[in-house]
Design a protein that fits this description.
The protein is of the alpha+beta class. Helices cover 52% and strands 9% of the residues. It folds into 2 domains: 205 residues, H-NOX domain (Alpha-Beta Complex), CATH 3.90.1520.10; 87 residues, Orthogonal Bundle (Arc Repressor Mutant, subunit A), CATH 1.10.10.60. The chain contains 15 helices and 7 strands. The radius of gyration is 21 Å and the shape is globular. The two termini are 22 Å apart. Keywords: DNA-binding, Transcription, Transcription regulation.
Length: 330
Amino acid sequence: MLHSHLTTLNAVSLMLEAFQSEGLSSDELLLGSGISLTDLKRSDPRITTRQEMLVCANAVALRREIGLELGPRMHVSSYGMLGYALLSSATLGDALRLALHYPALLGTLFHLRLIEDGDTIWFSASDYREHPQLAAFNAELCVGSLKVICDDLLGRPLPLLGARFAYPQPDYHERYRQTFSCPLHFDAIDNAFAFSADWLPQPLPLADAVTHRAMAERCRQQNLEFTGRQAWLGRIRQLLLQQLDAPPGLEDLARQMNCSSRTLRRHLQEMGSSYQQLLDELRFERAKQLLSEDQMPIYRIAELLGFSETASFRHAFLRWSGVAPSHFRI
């Protein structure tokens, strides 16, 4: 699915750290994502969710249970200004409701809810519609991070009453008990963990009303900027996707966006992207779709993606994926 969500480099950075001890080259994990080691040092660490997912797919191909390791390492400090707003909230319930108000700042691919079930609260992550092959990984990452955020806010582990996941039990299911010390269920209606409702009014040790008001306002402003950039980036992607067979140059694209090429270039740079990178991402996604759907000749796919020569498409696909188009199709 092509999308224009923005997220941060936090998960990618943690992923690189997790594999460093195994001597794996960072280039192997970053392959095809358009992210460089230099990007990890940027002051504005925003990337597209698609870039993040390409790195995640590379990681899952090497170690399928990596989500269980990364989730608990995504502490509340990984969420920037929102993290400070959560920490300074009055109660756990106040903090969690604030988090649900700003899903864009959480960078989640799920619909998050607090579901009341008598004296029990389920913190639920549902409606995942992105990459099916990464469903388990993303659920492990999301739910594991939500659990450690609760622990961070309270300053102690939140006792769990149960956890459930919306996919079949994986063969490494015993690893789940290292993160979720509670009864586990698979093939459920959503991904969620349960805790006593008595914890919602629990005062937080770092609560501070003055700091919280300031951080909450910063979150509101950041969310407006973040969602505005998402909409703007989505419009660019839509225009490029409609013209893949004859992509407009930067100047033409800027005219279609009713701005100057200089403005377009600057905005893309601020989002850690570029015209060529966006075009490559869309071409790569469409190429994989066409290669998987039927036996359309590779020269025809090259034409549909705006390549004047089949050889140019072959070289580009090899650079994006690490394999030739013919090998990808096997």
